[in-house]
């Protein structure tokens, strides 16, 4: 308990009037203040390398959400049995079941060991940079399973087929939930250490409690049901035996005998209100129960057992006294994470335009839980919800200017590699591979009791790289969501190849959708993405996005997303015919952002020059870009420039705090990156210093205009030698990324002269006169000029020219300018010329950092967190090549690997490096090789 003594003092007029009485009250207040002294935070800094985390699966939490491949369970089990989404439920000491919420079926039940921890979040949980993920398969002994058909059906006779629409790719499985009119997953309740499942079949609400009864020799898996009144006959499928030879059915028990000898049996036994319920065996293969229509609520239980026929007589006896009742789950469950973890943040000194304060994470904590933060959203100025890649939701309180007492409380767990969280009307929504889940704290004890399926209509394949990547709130209601395409990386399972770099995946991969305010409907907004992330302007509803450079995506784009847009990846178009590719707002070069993530729109006076701007987040850099949008011409055009600050971990998601007006960032390291720490939560804070960032840009016929927030030094600002201008195109191909190409198609970049520089009347803008301006995918303007008060502006601006309108310099505050005269009479010798660097070890070292080689290829022998092979000591050694003979790492091999990296990929690695053809000169390549030789 903490009571503020100030609140008591301010209510002095309510205290007793006599001096004696007042003295007694003063003594009481003083004692209260001493007795209620706040506990000081013990965690002020986190070193993940020094912390020991527990197992991914916690002993006192009843389930995890994951995928299961159960196609190879052995004789007698269905071979068409794979689930992209399952609740893997712990039912006893060594009894488990996986429930598929898409199909409302038990995929498999087993005993022995649980699942291997091999999904991406699981395998990297303790080995932070391990990306050798697999698809989970059970480790124990399977008892029974069902195949690829609904677990519940309605009508006269059930059909054991998958009713979902066929995958557009031949040979690929169907994915996604059943038609909600037939059956819908509603969510699950926590009931102490058990789960209660909630779903509807033909609109009938059903609660189910899975369980197990065990003795020394056998396990009976139990399913307890509560059905509301229902107007149709319903059927629940319990098991499938593919090698059944015969069967028998009595009033309460049904059995299938395996193979001709009948040495093994699988049986079911009913208990509870069984009047009218009928047991069935179809084709000596399918075990199911039919439930007649009823105007009453029905409660019954069923046990499923499989074992030696000689033990079948004991099966029903184990069910004696079985309690099939459903707990009163709507009252909530007792809390399991009672402790709060206190941390103290680290404030950065105001040494730059923007600085990052660090909100210290709750590591270590009483549950030895890893905390790799990926997204956050605010309830109010001091309270936020935070989601981790490890599947946990934390409530963070105590956010203030000093960050001196941050309180962390676990709120929910069990999610499947979530990457987005939103707070809407104080309710928390989490988006992961299971879909969008809305969390309910039914008994107000600070923990979620009901995990409601808000929407699972976005199909999810079992392909590991088909991430549920992003979710943003539509200000008019509902959400926009983004899904990765099924990248051809990681373990191969059930999807055939689609095009270079992609597997078939689901019918929703690589697209952006709008989910309705009730979660029941969804429409495709844009498609043709490789791996999209999103941003949205909360005032206007303008939707933005980025994508991952790779196959068919030549570099990092920033897009203004509109309905019907198509962004160039045919495997994720989901359209009968391919439309024209929508150009992005701007591209960003690989060397500046090799892995783009989300965007955030800033509407806050506290963020200084970023107010009113879009900010783009980069995972691979890591860091932030200011995005300038020019809508004054004939087409939207964008430009980016770096927001310098300290970003110790990848920056993935961001939100503006409605209270202090600052930007809060979250992200964690796993893929190729240049980061100091595993994960961090930051506050980007504007210090009030003079801004060096550009405020506006225009690419026009005849040149480029750049406006700044501060007055420029006329002498340096008008010196053409202080500017460099380059341009190049990319090629969209099946190769990973793209080299740089001149407008005539030759490889390389074009350097353009700056013939003159005009300064605006207010001295805050420059117009660079550049000849031969043309539409081009990438331009780069570098500048090194002075400004008011001795401020130095040394930066670069990257943009795309989608259209060339005529300049209107008078409207931008310039004097009248005769561009034609300047272009015809300019002295080209004054323009800045970039001299070719000589071959040197130091130049190679600089290029290795500048081109982000270090993000993927280590130089010290420690390749943790790198997606490419390390470079230390490789020169002169044989390199194992994927699908080929070993090659010698000599000058020719290294040159080829830089210019054509997809030609010979080192065994054990996926294609993931773009070509540097046209990006690096011969001297650059020679310098890089010289540096690699030195390692």
What would the keywords be for this entry?
mainly beta, Beta-galactosidase, Chain A, domain 5, Immunoglobulin-like, eight-stranded antiparallel sheet, about 35% strand, elongated, disordered N terminus
- The DSSP helix count reads 10
Number of strand elements? 53
Q: Please mark out the parts with pLDDT under 50 across 5 or more consecutive residues, or reply none.
A: 1-20, 22-36
Secondary-structure-derived class: mainly beta
Report the principal-axis shape. elongated
Q: Please state the CA-atom Rg, rounded to the nearest Å.
A: 31 Å
The strand line-up of the biggest sheet is: 12-13-14-17-10-9-8-7-27-26-25-24
Overall pLDDT confidence: 91
Share of helical residues = under 10%
CATH architectural type of the domain at 63-331: Distorted Sandwich
Describe the 3D structure.
A hairpin with a 2-residue loop joins strand 44 (694-700) and strand 45. Helix 7 packs across helix 10. Among the domains are: 5-35, no CATH class; 63-331, Beta-galactosidase, Chain A, domain 5; 694-830, Immunoglobulin-like (Sandwich); 841-934, Cytochrome c-like domain (Cytochrome Bc1 Complex, Chain D, domain 2). The protein has a twelve-stranded antiparallel β-sheet. An eight-stranded antiparallel β-sheet has the order 37-38-39-40-51-50-46-47. The chain has a five-stranded antiparallel β-sheet with strand order 1-2-3-4-5, with no helix packed on it. The chain has 935 residues and is mostly beta strands.
């Amino acid at each position: 308990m903490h009571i503020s003594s100030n609140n008591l003092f301010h209510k002095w007029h309510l205290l007793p009037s006599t001096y004696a009485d007042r003295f007694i009250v003063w003594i009481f207040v003083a004692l209260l203040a001493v007795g209620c002294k706040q506990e000081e935070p013990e965690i002020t800094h986190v070193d993940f390398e020094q912390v020991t985390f527990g197992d991914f699966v916690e002993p006192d939490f009843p389930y995890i959400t994951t995928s299961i491949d159960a196609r190879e369970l052995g004789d007698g089990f269905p071979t068409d049995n794979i689930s992209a989404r399952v609740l893997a439920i712990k039912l006893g000491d060594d009894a488990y079941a996986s429930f598929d919420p898409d199909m409302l079926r038990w995929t498999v039940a087993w005993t022995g060991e649980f699942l291997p921890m091999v999904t991406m979040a699981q395998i990297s949980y303790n080995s932070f940079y391990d990306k050798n993920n697999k698809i989970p398969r059970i480790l124990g002994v399977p008892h029974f399973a069902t195949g690829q058909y609904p677990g519940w059906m309605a009508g006269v006779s059930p059909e054991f087929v998958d009713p979902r629409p066929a995958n557009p790719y031949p040979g690929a499985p169907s994915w996604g939930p059943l038609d909600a009119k037939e059956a819908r997953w509603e969510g699950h309740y926590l009931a102490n250490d058990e789960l209660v499942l909630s779903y509807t079949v033909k609109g009938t609400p059903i609660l189910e409690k899975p369980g197990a009864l065990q003795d020394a020799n056998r396990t009976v898996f139990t399913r307890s049901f509560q059905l509301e009144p229902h107007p149709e006959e319903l059927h629940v499928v319990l098991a499938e035996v593919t090698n059944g030879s015969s069967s028998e059915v009595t009033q309460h028990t049904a059995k299938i005998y395996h193979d001709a000898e009948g040495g093994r049996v699988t049986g079911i036994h009913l208990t509870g209100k069984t009047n009218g319920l009928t047991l069935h065996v179809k084709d000596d293969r399918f075990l199911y129960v039919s439930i007649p229509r009823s105007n009453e609520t029905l409660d019954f239980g069923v046990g499923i057992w499989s074992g030696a026929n000689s033990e079948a007589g004991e099966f029903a006896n184990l069910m004696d006294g079985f309690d099939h009742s459903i707990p009163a789950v709507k009252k909530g469950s007792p809390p399991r994470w009672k402790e709060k973890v206190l941390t103290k943040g680290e404030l950065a000194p105001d040494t730059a335009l923007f600085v990052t304060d660090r909100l210290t994470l709750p590591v270590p904590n009483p549950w030895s839980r890893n905390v790799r933060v990926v997204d956050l959203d605010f309830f109010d100025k001091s309270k936020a919800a935070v989601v981790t890649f490890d599947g946990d939701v934390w409530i963070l309180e105590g956010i203030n200017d000093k960050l001196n007492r941050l309180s962390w409380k676990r709120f929910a767990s069990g999610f499947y590699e979530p990457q987005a969280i939103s707070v809407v009307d104080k309710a928390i929504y989490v988006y992961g591979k299971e879909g969008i889940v809305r969390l309910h704290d039914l008994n107000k004890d600070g923990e979620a009791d009901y995990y409601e399926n808000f929407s699972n209509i976005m199909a999810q394949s079992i392909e590991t790289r088909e991430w549920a990547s992003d979710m943003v709130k539509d200000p008019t209601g509902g959400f926009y969501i983004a899904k990765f395409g099924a990248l051809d990386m990681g373990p191969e399972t059930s999807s055939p190849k689609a095009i270079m770099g992609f597997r078939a995946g689901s019918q929703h991969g690589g697209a952006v959708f709008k989910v309705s305010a009730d979660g029941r409907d969804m429409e495709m907004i844009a498609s043709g993405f490789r791996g999209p992330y999103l941003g949205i302007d909360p005032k206007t509803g303008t939707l933005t996005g980025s994508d991952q450079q790779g196959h068919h995506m030549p570099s990092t784009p920033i897009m203004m997303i509109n309905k019907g847009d198509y962004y160039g990846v045919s495997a994720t178009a989901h359209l009968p015919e391919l439309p024209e590719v929508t150009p992005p707002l701007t591209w960003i070069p690989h060397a500046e952002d090799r892995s783009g993530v989300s965007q955030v729109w800033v509407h806050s006076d506290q963020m200084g020059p970023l107010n009113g701007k879009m900010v783009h987040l980069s995972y691979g850099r890591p860091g932030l870009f200011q995005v300038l949008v020019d809508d004054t011409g004939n087409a939207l055009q964008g430009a980016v420039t770096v927001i310098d600050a300290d970003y110790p971990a990848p920056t993935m998601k961001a939100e503006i705090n409605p209270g202090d007006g600052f930007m809060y960032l979250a992200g964690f390291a796993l893929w190729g990156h240049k980061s100091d720490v595993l994960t961090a939560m930051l506050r980007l804070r504007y210090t009030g210093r003079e801004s060096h960032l550009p405020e506006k840009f225009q690419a026009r016929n005849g040149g480029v205009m750049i406006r700044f927030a501060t007055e420029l030094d006329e002498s340096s600002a008008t010196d053409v030698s202080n500017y460099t201008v380059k341009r190049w195109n990319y090629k969209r191909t099946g190769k990973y990324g793209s080299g740089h190409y001149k407008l005539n198609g030759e490889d390389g970049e074009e350097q353009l002269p700056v013939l003159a520089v005009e300064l605006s009347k207010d001295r805050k803008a420059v117009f660079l006169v550049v000849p031969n301006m043309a539409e081009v995918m990438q331009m780069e303007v570098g500048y090194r000029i002075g400004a008011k008060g001795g401020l130095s502006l040394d930066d670069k601006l990257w943009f795309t020219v989608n259209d060339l309108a005529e300049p209107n310099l008078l409207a931008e505050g310039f004097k009248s300018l005769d561009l034609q005269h300047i272009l015809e009479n300019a002295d080209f010798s004054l323009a800045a010329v970039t001299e070719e660097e000589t071959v040197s070890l130091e130049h190679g070292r600089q290029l290795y950092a500048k081109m982000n080689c270090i993000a993927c290829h280590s130089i010290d022998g420690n390749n943790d967190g790198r997606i490419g092979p390390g470079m230390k000591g490789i020169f002169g050694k044989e390199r194992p090549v994927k699908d080929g003979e070993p090659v010698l790492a000599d000058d020719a091999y290294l040159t080829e690997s830089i210019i054509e990296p997809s030609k010979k990929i080192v065994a054990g690695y996926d294609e993931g490096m773009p070509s540097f053809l046209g990006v690096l000169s011969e001297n650059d390549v020679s310098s890089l090789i010289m540096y690699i030789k030195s390692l």
